[in-house]
């Protein structure tokens, strides 16, 4: 195992990076440009480290699923600090249904084979690759999506992630979603988890919103109600769900 970091080492690295960044950000002599740069660096580093937690979670589940008699999982001390994104296709999250209108009108064969959204499918919201245009796109500003998490989760936070304005080919992020509502679905009823607003802050592209609930859920209904002014379509790049299993 030489050369491979343990979960404890990765955790310590994460804490050191965050502590160092916070010390730099509070220095009074930091100018506005440097402040923006450091905030951007902070977001980038946290995003990379968050992906490490996702990979650790997948790795642990893969090991648990195999026969490893010499490993005592009760003594494992891996802590994810709520950083596993359960709305990830890599973990098994799926899109169950979509109520929206495609950006481009589908032809006969696309409708026949139910591939109306093949250019910008909703599954892209569950993937980590966020290149410009690599999003779930729908006409106007309204859509309803139901996603199934890989297992029931005690949800602590939900969030959205959009690309930076400088990465947009048109330097325009008005197609980003704005107001949205999240429900947890059960056999008996829809449980309102919250009504939220995503703002197009360039220093905070991933925005998380706290959720207060006592139950575990694996079906989420997300109702996108508006965007930031684009008259033709809305782009949703990534959905994030943090919690505990």
Question: What would a concise description of this structure say?
Answer:
With 245 residues, the protein is an alpha+beta fold. The chain is built from three helices and nine strands, in the order ααβαββββββββ. The strands form two sheets. Strands 1, 3, 4, 5, 6, 7 and 9 form a seven-stranded antiparallel β-sheet that branches. It has a two-stranded antiparallel ribbon with strand order 2-8.
- Strand fraction: 25-35%
Q: Give the strand tally.
A: 9
Helical content band: 10-25%
Structural class by SSE content: alpha+beta
**Biggest β-sheet: count, sense, barrel?**
7 strands, antiparallel
Q: Count of helices? A: 3
Please tell me the overall pLDDT. Answer: 77
First-residue to last-residue Cα separation: 29 Å
Uncertain stretches of 5 or more adjacent residues: 25-31, 71-82
At CATH level 3, the topology of one domain is Jelly Rolls
What's the helix-strand series?
A: HHEHEEEEEEEE
Query: Gyration radius, to the nearest Å?
Result: 20 Å
The CATH class designation of one domain is Mainly Beta
- What's the name of the CATH homologous superfamily of one domain? Galactose-binding domain-like
Morphology call: globular
CATH architecture of one domain: Sandwich
Protein name: SUN domain-containing protein
GO molecular function: protein-membrane adaptor activity
Pfam family, one: Sad1_UNC
Main location: membrane
């Amino acid at each position: 195992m030489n050369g491979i970091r343990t979960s404890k080492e990765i955790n310590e690295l994460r804490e050191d990076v965050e502590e160092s960044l916070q010390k730099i950000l509070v220095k009074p002599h930091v100018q506005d440009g440097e402040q923006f740069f450091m905030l951007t660096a902070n977001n980038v580093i946290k995003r990379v480290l968050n992906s490490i937690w996702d990979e650790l979670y997948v790795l642990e589940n893969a090991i648990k699923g195999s026969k490893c008699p010499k490993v005592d999982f009760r003594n494992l001390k891996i802590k994810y600090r709520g950083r596993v994104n359960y709305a990830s296709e890599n973990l098994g999250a799926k899109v169950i249904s979509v109520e929206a209108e495609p950006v481009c009108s589908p032809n006969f064969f696309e409708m026949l084979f139910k591939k109306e959204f093949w250019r910008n499918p909703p599954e892209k919201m569950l993937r980590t690759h966020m290149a410009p245009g690599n999003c779930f796109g729908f006409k106007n500003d309204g859509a309803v999506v139901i996603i199934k998490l890989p297992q029931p989760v005690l949800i602590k936070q939900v969030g959205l992630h959009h690309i930076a304005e400088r990465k947009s080919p048109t330097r325009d992020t008005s197609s980003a979603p704005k107001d949205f509502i999240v429900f947890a679905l059960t056999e008996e009823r829809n449980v309102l988890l919250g009504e939220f607003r995503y703002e197009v802050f360039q220093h905070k592209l991933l925005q998380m919103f706290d959720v207060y609930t006592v139950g575990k859920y694996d079906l989420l209904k997300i109702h996108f109600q508006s965007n930031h002014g684009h008259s033709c379509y809305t782009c949703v790049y990534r959905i994030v769900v943090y919690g505990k299993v």
